[in-house]
Amino acid sequence: RLAPPFETSEETITHLTEMGFGRDHALEALESTESNRVEVAMEYCLSHPPPSPRTVERRRAAREDRRRRREEAEQRRREEEERRTEGEGASSSAGAAAAGGDSGSAAGASVAADAARVPLPQEGEGDSEPGPVSPPEGGDAAGSASAASGNGEGAQDRADVSSSGDKVEDMEVSQDEKEAKDEKPPKPPEERSVAQIKRLLRELKDNLVPRSFDIIKGGAA
C-alpha cells in the first residue's frame, strides 16, 4: 500500500512567517523538503530565495491538482469498500439459502429413504387366512391355549345359537303358512243363517225325538 501523500503543517508555516519568511516561501520549503520540521524548512528558506509569482501560481495549481486527485482516490476507495461489503452480504445470503435448500433436500431424501425401507405387504397377504401360530414358551403357552380354547367354544356357541334361531324362524314361518292355508274365507250372511237353521234342526231332532219315544214308552207301560 502506498504511503499517504505529504500534508503541510499549518503550525510550521506559522512559525516560519513569525520568523520573517513569507507564506509562499515557507510553503515552498515544506513541499520541497516534504518535512514539517521548522529547522529543515528554515534551512531551505535561508539557502533558497523566495519563489517568483509564476512559481507560486504553478505550485498552487499543482497543490489543487493533488488535492483533487486525492479526493477522487478517496471516493473510489469508499465506493470499492461499499461494493465489496454488498458483495459479501449477497454471498452470505446466497450461501444461507443454498444451505437451507441442501438441508431441505437432505431431509426429503431421508424421508424418501425411510419410506423405501418400509416392507410392502405381499400380494394376497391381507386376504389369506392366518397360518398356525407357534405356541409361546412357558406360562404364556397355557394362557394362549386357554384363550384359543375359549375362543373356539365361544365361536361354537355363537354358531349353535345362530342355527337354533334359524330353525325357530323356519318353524314359525311354516306354522304361519299352514294356518293361512287352513283358514277358509268367511261365508256370506245368507249361508251362515241357513247353516244355523240346519244345525238347530239337527240338534232338535237328536234331542227331541229320543225324548218323545221315551215318553211314549213310559205311557204305554
TrEMBL record:
* Domain spans labelled UBA: 7-48
Q: Where is the signal peptide?
A: none
Q: Which Gene3D superfamilies match?
A: DNA helicase RuvA subunit, C-terminal domain
Q: Where is this region: Disordered?
A: 1-20, 44-194
Regions of compositional bias (Basic and acidic residues) in chain numbering: 55-87, 155-193
Pfam families under this entry?
A: UBA_7
SMART domains in the cross-refs: UBA
InterPro entries tied to this protein: UBA, UBA-like_sf
Task: Name the residue ranges with Low complexity bias.
Answer: 88-116, 136-150
Recorded hits in SUPFAM superfamilies, A to Z, give: UBA-like
Coiled-coil ranges from the UniProt annotation: none
Q: What is this protein called?
A: UBA domain-containing protein
Q: Which organism is it from?
A: Pseudictyota dubia
State the taxonomy lineage.
Answer: Eukaryota, Sar, Stramenopiles, Ochrophyta, Bacillariophyta
